[in-house]
Specification:
The structure holds 3 protein chains of 3 kinds. Chain A folds into 2 domains: about 130 residues, Beta Polymerase, domain 2; about 325 residues, Cytochrome-c3 Hydrogenase, chain B. Helix content of chain A is about 40%, strand content about 15%. Chain A has 19 helices and 16 strands. In chain A, strands 1-2-5-4-3 form a 5-stranded mixed β-sheet. In chain A, a hairpin with a 2-residue loop joins strand 9 and strand 10. In chain B, about 15% of the residues lie in helices and about 20% in strands. Chain B has 5 helices and 7 strands, in the order αβαββαββαββα. A 3-stranded antiparallel β-sheet of chain B has the order 2-3-5. A two-stranded antiparallel ribbon of chain B has the order 1-4. Chain B has a two-stranded antiparallel sheet with strand order 6-7. In chain B, a hairpin with a 2-residue loop joins strand 2 and strand 3. The relative contact order of chain B is 0.18. Chain C has 11 helices and no strands. By secondary structure, chain C is mostly helical. Chain C has one domain. The chains are: A alpha+beta, B alpha+beta, C mainly alpha. Chains in contact: A-B, A-C, B-C. At the A-B interface, helix 6, helix 9 and helix 10 of A face helix 1 and helix 4 of B.
């Protein structure tokens, strides 16, 4: 059903509470409702219409409308529709009924809203700090418009600690992270372990929270932000770059020229290739198979080199500006790219067949880290995690963007729901990516690279973009603003939702499998963390100061060993 | 077991792929985005690079009517290449240098002192900026090139107008 | 006298050659992984570097940590004293096969002591894994020695460690079975992938060795390197001892060549396998145990 049909269906049940609706296109719908009706509508959308939950967003709209704004985004994948239900909240008492009871996947998003914007989710069952460090005082919310981006709040208390729950009966506590050889970035999983079996875990993360959304709202302009967005993540930077550009283009109704769209698709698929190859190597390293790790990286190297030839850098392509792309692919480069793809497929096929028949690897990955269809739906998991559970979602096909509507490819799904299935999904997606790139190279038309923008971008318009990162759906929400910068920019990386599935995946499994389970969602903690730098000169306020860390490592307080 | 032998053959075929870097220099492709290099002869002082630098790593100071100081502070540069892209005179080239590690921050800096002459026909120093670039500049730049701080003064301060919507901030 | 000299020569050779074998292993692994790898002298430099580092005592019981470090290398070198490496068995004066089995077990216990003394959560998980695998693994070597002793009707080391597994009448079935089993489990004795479970770096951050740094870590690493040489010597002594009657220099050379072949085998298997989980490894060892008990019964009946 297209946007209009969904709106009519909603109007049938909820016409009394709907205040306004925007239908910018057939694939986007924004419905403004009264705050009290939000929970009911979200229940209806999530359970009755069976949509997929994407993200909840809180924004401080007081300089423009005098109120706070809360938005819940959903996706109707089969109908190619992205839908957002919004409500304005009174400025004196920004409270909203929590939807985490009916939509469990909203748990983190609401905690983040509470931390950063100060919108209180009433009825949320687990109201602890998510994003801000524990030293942060109460009542100070960084993403509010009255707080400057480089302000250090008073009342910072570095001695305050995160209050973990008590472990269940008979369990020892094994702290996993923030320092661990398997993790690329810091995250803390507090495992409750009985012998070798994990009985539960608690997660405290957001240690690389950098203040990106605040910077974008206060300091940078529209064309500066793609460079910043690219640095949200080292591996999937291009995705954020493109998704932001698309969100602004969708808000301001700008269409990039076709050649730009093809180039965006090609670079996105190149990024997917390099990311999947990296992940296969990393997964093998986690299970102790270093040889395959080395070979995956060797096979991946030509992709980095061709990306460097096209864009000037191996990884940070700095590809997009609003309205187009910055680099062109000449015909020599096209020939080289085809050559690289041929070589890649030739090398990758024997690796896939060797790994598929390898009993040793299968013994370590079958039946591990199980995330079945129901967990995927409840938690809103996306990407290979969902596809390995048989859930057929892929933003390239469901919400076509760039040139994906014009090429053919298969969406790989497996039924195993475990780490082995995710390994298979990613290995096979490599071939699909090569197929897409070849089709794009054949179909690419001549033309300009950037759309000519001759007027100011209208303020106050909302844009949504969902881009398929190697890890899943990366969703950007932009409200355009004055002074050449957005009013609000929200980044929802795929790992944000996938991480919420991890505690269930590792429950009742062994510690040895914990790392590969965590690794199988391809965690990108940089993507997840993103927000709030305090002061440019002295750096972020961390969870642990250096003295505390040294002290904790040298003392032997119970429960702190190894941290 | 047979699979392992198959894997071993796959592994042994490529030989040795380790490059002799840094014993031998590694060539970079021609459009590699290394350190940007300014050509003082070509620069007209439009400060397009400074206004479009995403990292705020290019500073501008106008000591007087005819003189403009442009300073590139390399410490925060992300090598995105926006400066080279928007330069109307192609005075900035993203060079091939990437081995820039140094203990002295001043090694990374470049500074141009430019004499601003006006066009005889239109009387301006350079062409107006493009739409997306021009919008954010409703004031003037008065950066502290000595200490390296980007200071942006809103026109309001000049005109005594207290009501502005962009934030009069001292950015760094 | 000559025996004692030979024993001391053994110890010296083990100390000198163990890092070289480690270096060769790393080079072979690197070639399989299509890269250059470190020079074969690298482990010497690594040990020197570790010995020069600051010795931070961060575990629960520092005295026990020190003791465990010294004990690990000492136990390995004592076994080296007893085992023939191209020369006659020096330890004939000192002890017999029972002492050998005891010392082998002591070598395994050093890691447990190390982990216990450290006391951190990861070390404890590591030693629990090590204990589980020791229970099913150590007896394998003991049974190999006992099979040899049964065939040779003697517990004396110079007889047992001289191909005694084949010395029965007729086709030595039990000897061949034990040879096969020992080849299959050799990897576990020397703690290399797929059986380096207690020290799984990516899962447990080095497990029992986590709280060790500097000189103590050097001792543990040295002990690990030397374990490979000593276990190869034991294996060669039990199952492929031929050539020991040649002139001393030739016999020595032959022994070290055989050792090198075993090292190559270990390196290739380590490079081409993923690490097993502890329960899978224990199941694997248990299967071997049962087979070895079968071999023991065969040996008791003279086959």
């Amino acid at each position: 059903m297209i946007a209009r049909d969904l709106f009519l269906r909603l109007k049938g049940s909820f016409s009394s509470v709907i205040q306004r609706a925007d239908l910018p296109s057939d694939q986007r719908l924004f419905v403004f409702v009264e705050p009290a009706a939000l929970k009911n509508i979200c229940y209806h959308i999530f359970r009755v219409f069976d949509a997929r939950y994407v993200i909840s967003i809180g924004a401080d709209d007081r300089p423009y409308s005098g109120k706070f704004l809360v938005a819940h985004n959903f996706a109707f994948d089969a109908d190619h529709l992205l839908f957002s239900v919004l409500a304005y909240l009174p400025p004196e008492k920004p409270e909203v009924e929590s939807i985490s009871e009916v939509v469990p996947a909203a748990s983190w998003a609401e905690r983040e809203m509470r931390d950063l914007v100060g919108i209180e989710p009433v009825g949320h069952r687990y109201l602890k700090r998510l994003v801000l460090p524990d030293a942060w005082p109460e009542g100070v919310h960084p993403l509010r418009k009255d707080m400057a981006w480089n302000e250090v709040p008073e009342g910072l208390d570095n001695s305050r600690e995160f209050m973990f729950d008590d472990p269940p009966e008979g369990c020892a506590v094994v702290p996993f992270g923030p320092f661990h050889p398997t993790l690329d970035e810091p995250a803390h999983f507090r495992l409750y372990v009985e012998g070798e079996m994990v009985r539960g875990c608690e997660y405290r993360g957001f240690m690389v929270h950098r203040g990106i959304e605040k910077l974008a709202e206060s300091v940078l302009g529209y064309d500066d932000i793609p460079m910043l967005a690219e640095r949200i993540c080292g591996i999937c930077g291009c995705v954020h770059n493109v998704a932001y550009a698309q969100a602004v283009e969708s808000a301001a109704a700008i269409s990039p020229p076709p050649r730009a769209e093809y180039i965006r698709s090609i670079m996105l698929e190149l990024e997917r290739l390099h990311s999947h190859l990296l992940w296969v190597g990393l997964a093998c390293h986690i299970i102790g198979f270093d040889t395959l790790f080395m070979h995956s990286f060797r096979i991946r190297e030509p992709i980095m080199r061709i990306a460097e030839k096209i864009s000037g850098n191996r990884k940070t392509y700095s590809l997009c500006v609003i309205g187009g792309v910055r680099w062109d692919i000449s015909s020599e480069l096209k020939g080289e790219l085809r050559h690289v793809l041929d070589g890649l497929e030739k090398e990758w096929k024997p690796v896939v067949s060797a790994v598929t028949g390898d009993k040793n690897v299968q013994a370590r990955t079958r039946g591990i880290g199980v995330a079945n269809r129901q967990l995927v739906k409840e938690v809103g998991a996306v990407g290979p995690v969902a596809r390995a559970a048989g859930v057929d979602i892929d933003c390239r096909r469901d919400h076509p963007y760039a040139a994906y509507g014009r090429v053919e490819f298969d969406v790989i799904t497996e039924q195993g729901c475990d780490v082995w299935s995710r390994l298979l999904v990613r290995m096979k997606e490599v071939f699909q990516s090569a197929r897409i790139i070849r089709q794009c190279l054949d179909k690419m038309e001549e033309g300009p690279l950037q759309a000519a923008i001759t007027e100011e971008l209208p303020p106050g318009r909302m844009g949504l973009a969902s881009v398929e990162a190697p890890r899943g759906e990366s969703h950007h929400f932009v409200i355009t603003g004055e002074n050449n910068r957005p009013r609000r920019w929200r980044v929802r990386a795929p790992t944000y939702q996938n991480l919420q599935a991890v505690p269930m995946m590792i429950k009742d499994q062994r510690i040895a499998d914990m790392t590969i389970s965590l690794g199988s969602i391809d965690p990108c903690f940089s993507c997840t963390d993103r927000l709030e730098t305090i002061e440019v000169r002295s750096g972020t306020v961390r969870l642990w100061t250096q003295e505390e860390l040294l002290q904790a490592a040298r003392s032997k307080k119970p429960g702190n060993s190894g941290e | 077991m047979l699979n392992k032998i198959k894997e071993a053959i796959v592994c042994l075929r490529p030989g040795r792929v380790t490059l002799p870097y840094p014993a031998q220099a590694e060539p970079v492709p021609e459009n590699f985005r290394g350190v940007p290099r300014w050509d003082g002869e070509k620069c007209i002082g439009c400060a397009g690079c400074a206004n479009n630098c995403s990292a705020r790593a290019i500073l501008v100071l106008d000591p007087c009517q005819e003189l403009r100081i442009l300073q590139y502070i390399g410490s925060r540069c992300t090598y995105c290449g926006r400066c080279a892209e928007v330069c109307p005179e192609k005075a900035i080239v993203m060079s091939n240098e990437f081995e820039m590690a140094t203990a002295e921050a001043s090694d990374l800096q470049q500074r141009l002192d430019i004499f601003m002459s006006t066009c005889q026909r239109c009387g301006r120093c350079f062409k107006g900026a493009a739409v997306l670039e021009g919008l954010k500049m409703s004031g003037y730049r008065s950066d502290e090139v000595g200490s390296g701080r980007w200071v942006y003064r809103s026109r309001a301060l000049l005109e005594g107008d207290a009501v502005v919507d962009d934030i009069p901030i001292e950015l760094d | 006298m000559a025996n004692v000299a030979a024993g001391l020569l053994n110890v010296l050779m083990v100390l000198l050659v163990a890092p070289l074998f480690q270096g060769i292993q790393r080079k072979i692994t690197a070639r399989i992984q299509a890269r250059q790898g470190p020079p074969i002298w690298q482990p010497y430099f690594d040990l020197l570097k570790l010995l020069g580092k600051e010795d931070i005592e961060a575990g629960t019981v520092p005295a026990m940590q020190r003791f465990a470090a010294y004990l690990s290398l000492a136990a390995v070198l004592t076994v080296a004293f007893l085992v023939p490496m191209g020369t006659a068995v020096p330890g004939a004066l000192v002890g017999d096969a029972i002492l050998l089995i005891y010392l082998l077990t002591l070598m395994g216990i050093c890691n447990l002591l190390a982990g216990l003394a450290a006391g951190s959560a990861y070390s404890l998980v590591g030693i629990s894994r090590e204990m589980m695998s020791m229970v099913v693994l150590e007896p394998l070597f003991a049974i190999a020695v006992i099979v040899g002793a049964l065939h040779a009707h003697s517990l004396r080391l110079e007889i047992v460690l001289n191909g005694s597994a084949y010395s029965g009448t007729g086709v030595p079935w039990s000897g061949i079975v034990m040879l096969g089993l020992m080849l299959l489990s050799f990897q576990a004795f020397v703690q290399r992938v797929p059986f380096d479970i207690s020290e799984a770096e990516t899962e447990l951050m080095e497990g029992p060795l986590m709280e060790y740094s500097g000189p103590k870590l050097a001792l543990f690493k040295y002990a690990q390197m030397a374990k490979l040489v000593v276990y190869s010597a034991l294996f060669i002594g039990l199952f492929i001892p031929w050539g020991e009657t040649l002139h001393p220099p030739l016999a020595l050379l032959l022994f070290w060549l055989k050792s090198l072949a075993l090292v190559l085998l270990v390196a290739v298997v380590a490079a081409t396998h993923a690490r097993y989980r502890i329960d899978q490894a224990v199941r694997y060892f248990a299967a071997m145990m049962i087979a070895s008990l079968g071999a023991l019964v065969l040996a008791a009946y003279g086959y």
